[in-house]
Design a protein that fits this description.
Layout lengths: L4 E7 L9 E7 L6 E2 L4 E6 L4 E5 L4 E6 L6 E3 L3 E8 L19 H5 L31 H10 L17 H9 L31 H7 L3 E2 L31 H16 L2 E9 L1 H18 L5 H15 L5 E3 L4 E3 L5 E3 L1 E2 L4 E2 L2 E2 L7 H16 L13 E4 L19 E5 L2 E8 L2 E15 L5 H16 L9
Parallel strand pairs: 13-17, 17-18
Antiparallel strand pairs: 1-8, 2-4, 2-7, 3-6, 4-5, 6-8, 9-19, 10-20, 11-12, 13-16, 14-15, 18-20, 19-20
Helix pairs in contact: 2-3, 7-8, 7-9
């Protein structure tokens, strides 16, 4: 190391008041690698969310003081960065990252431009676009999907952190039909390390055609997305047996603890009601195309259901409460926890003060939180303060479910798949779009009468939608 080079300590940050340690999931930089300010250097795993730790200086990775998989206490040094021709910089912990992503200034894309060329390290820059430092870093899921469909990842636009290509980017590229174009039209770039030989991509079927082929059923959210498949890390089998060993991550351990706590401490009861959503289906079909053009997101059934639930909670505020041994605490703010499934877990990000939002606002919140969850960009603030949980189990075809309460809340509601059925109306048979709504409740707080009335109010609100209902 030259005389004008200084070492900057990278400190384990405190991601939240309740967290005293975090686990090094993966080092994204190795000794000798050049580093730009705000570029992620490692992945941190906590018992709530995963986060990427960004660098606060330009330089070169000097040494790693913590190993992958090691749990490090807050304030300990985990690495050192060599900075050329600069005074000693503040520790990296001075700007803790937002969970699941880089700092706010990195997200804005303006802070890196504030550095002069003289502040850059003397080490050679990586052979990628400077505006997208993570462009050529592919996850195993992305590589596998690209190899399966013969996609050149160099032609896929990346929307992830630092231009990183996500699985959703590959699926969108595949759906657009761009993958079927000749490979010569793609810009030259190195192929992914583990890409297999190109395979003839399958013929893509447009979504409207799928709906015409299946007019009887509709599964609600994410109908056009491929199902998420868990990633299994294979270590080795024991005694020659066909076994897979999967490490229990901090997030999975937290899920297991909370589920066990919920089932053991809360006396669960559940009830179900059938709802006629024919008018809702007509309303959504009428508005979804215009809403897509105006807002750029899909208008889902879940937004309408959530509005109906929030309105019902206003009428029955005891549903928005928690058990406190010698008293019941009723929450004034209605903060709806949204259950979102990822490849290896279920997260419950929170829509704060959902009672103050209209249907369009709820749709935007749902889309944003679902996207952040699946891309691993949730912040700790996104996970806190929930008072009632809503889950769309109908998105994967379920017609009846018994959900476990999101501890310590008093209830959880699931919206099942929409199915066309023959229904008797005024002694005549009619074909209607029907769906089940299931409610699990804490029987210490809620009884059958109040829960039944609440569920009936949700039903009335859902069936009360008309073609004249406004989104804004």
């Amino acid at each position: 190391m030259s005389d004008n080079t200084t070492l900057t300590d990278v400190i384990m940050p405190q991601l939240a008041e309740s967290l005293v340690s975090a686990t090094i999931g993966k080092w994204l930089k190795q000794p000798g690698d050049p580093i730009e300010q705000y570029e992620p250097i490692c992945e941190l795993i906590t018992d709530k969310v995963n986060a990427e730790l960004p660098a606060t200086v330009d330089g070169t990775m000097a040494e790693l003081l913590a190993e992958e998989g090691q749990t490090v206490s807050v304030g300990e040094i985990i690495a050192r960065i060599a900075v050329a021709g600069a005074a000693p910089a503040a520790p990296a912990a001075a700007a803790p990252p937002q969970a699941g992503g880089s700092s706010a200034s990195a997200a804005s894309g303006t802070a890196p431009q504030a550095h002069s060329a003289a502040a850059r390290p003397s080490a050679p820059a990586p052979a990628v676009d400077a505006a997208a430092p993570m462009r050529s870093r592919y996850s195993p899921a992305v590589q596998s999907l690209a190899a399966e469909h013969g996609i050149n990842l160099a032609a896929v636009p990346g929307t992830g952190l630092g231009g990183r290509i996500t699985r959703k980017d590959v699926l969108a590229f595949l759906t657009s039909g761009a993958a079927a174009q000749p490979a010569a039209t793609a810009p030259p770039a190195a192929a992914p390390p583990q890409a297999a030989a190109p395979i003839q991509p399958p013929v893509q079927v447009a979504q409207p055609e799928r709906e015409e082929l299946q007019p009887v059923r509709h599964s609600g959210l994410h109908l056009s997305e491929s199902p998420k498949i868990p990633t299994i890390e294979v270590e080795r089998g024991r005694d020659g047996m066909s076994e897979y060993l999967i490490d229990v991550t901090p997030i999975r351990n937290t899920i297991a603890t909370r589920m066990r706590q919920s089932v053991s401490e809360i006396p669960h009861a559940w009830t179900m009601i059938e709802v006629d959503v024919t008018n809702l289906v007509v309303l959504r079909n009428k508005l979804k195309d215009e809403f897509k053009r105006k807002e750029g997101i899909n208008l889902t059934y879940l937004a309408f259901l959530m509005k109906a639930v929030v309105s019902a909670i206003k009428d029955y505020p005891i549903m928005n409460s928690v058990w406190a041994v010698d008293k019941i605490i009723v929450k004034r703010d209605i903060n709806i926890s949204l259950a979102v499934g990822t490849e290896d877990s279920v997260m419950t990000p929170v829509i704060q003060k959902a009672d103050q939002k209209n249907i369009a606002g709820l749709a935007r919140e749902i889309d944003e939180l679902a996207l952040k969850t699946r891309e691993g960009k949730l912040r700790l603030d996104d996970m806190q303060g929930g008072t009632f949980t809503v889950n769309n189990t109908g998105s994967f075809g379920s017609i009846l479910s018994y959900p476990i309460i999101n501890y310590p809340q008093a209830a959880i509601l699931t919206f099942e798949s929409i199915v066309k059925k023959p229904v008797v109306i005024n002694d005549m048979i009619a074909v209607r779009s029907m769906a089940n709504i299931c409610l699990s409740l804490d029987h210490r707080i809620l009884d059958g009468v109040i829960s039944g009335r609440f569920l009936q109010r949700v039903k009335d609100n859902v069936e009360g939608y008309t073609p004249d209902t406004k989104l804004y």
